[in-house]
């Protein structure tokens, strides 16, 4: 079963923590964490934490004007209602299969972009100016990461298979694997994992099938 976006929007709601990051007079839209919740469910726990490459096209429901500039700690920013993107809809499909009520999404970088070249340019800018605020895997944001991971049942990596992200993926995998078992659909080069939304419907269904099979034989994060 491959539910439509319209159908999924009647079942789930999405939220996110958004901010603008100013680095060397260049402003970036960022999202530190996203939430997908089943409507009508009330639970404190998180069924799964998805760790992806970077936020895609999701924005606050009220638009870009609702996004504040970062002036303090990321983890004190408000949670805003958000519009879902294709990746979020794909995660909702997995939630339906697993009968999950609540998942969270973090990324190797908070910098929001839908194009890989823009991702690379953003990472280069951050390295050049030694600005690590965009990454929840930076030392300064470790308490924030720890708080998120400790509340989840499963850690699922899906940051993609591009060679250029290997360094960031290795860094994230090292940190995450110390906190719990990291699952996902592994690529032939580790620690790279297939992205949940590979665009082609047949491949999307295969990811769902493989992930469901893996999860139903997995244990929760200890």
UniProtKB/TrEMBL annotation:
InterPro entries given in the database record: DUF1643
Stored Pfam families: DUF1643
Protein name, as recorded: DUF1643 domain-containing protein
């Amino acid at each position: 079963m491959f539910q439509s976006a319209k159908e999924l929007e009647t079942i789930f709601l999405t939220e996110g923590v958004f901010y603008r990051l100013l680095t060397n007079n260049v402003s970036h839209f960022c999202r530190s964490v996203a939430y997908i919740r089943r409507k009508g469910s009330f639970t404190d726990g998180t069924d799964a934490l998805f760790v992806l490459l970077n936020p895609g096209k999701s924005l606050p429901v009220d638009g870009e004007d609702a996004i504040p500039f970062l002036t303090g700690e990321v983890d004190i920013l408000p949670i805003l209602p958000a519009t879902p993107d294709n990746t979020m809809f794909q995660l909702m499909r997995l939630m339906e299969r697993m009968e999950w009520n609540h998942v969270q999404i973090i990324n190797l970088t908070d910098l929001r972009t839908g194009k890989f070249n823009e991702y690379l340019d953003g990472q280069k800018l951050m390295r050049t100016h030694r600005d690590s605020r965009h990454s929840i895997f930076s030392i300064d944001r470790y308490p924030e990461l720890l708080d998120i991971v400790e509340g989840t049942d499963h850690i699922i990596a899906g940051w993609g298979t591009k060679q250029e992200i290997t360094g960031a993926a290795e860094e994230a995998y090292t940190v995450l694997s110390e906190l719990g078992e990291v699952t996902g659909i592994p690529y032939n080069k580790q620690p790279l994992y297939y992205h949940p939304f590979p665009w082609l419907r047949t491949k999307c269904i295969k990811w769902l099938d493989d992930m469901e099979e893996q999860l139903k034989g997995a244990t929760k994060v200890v």
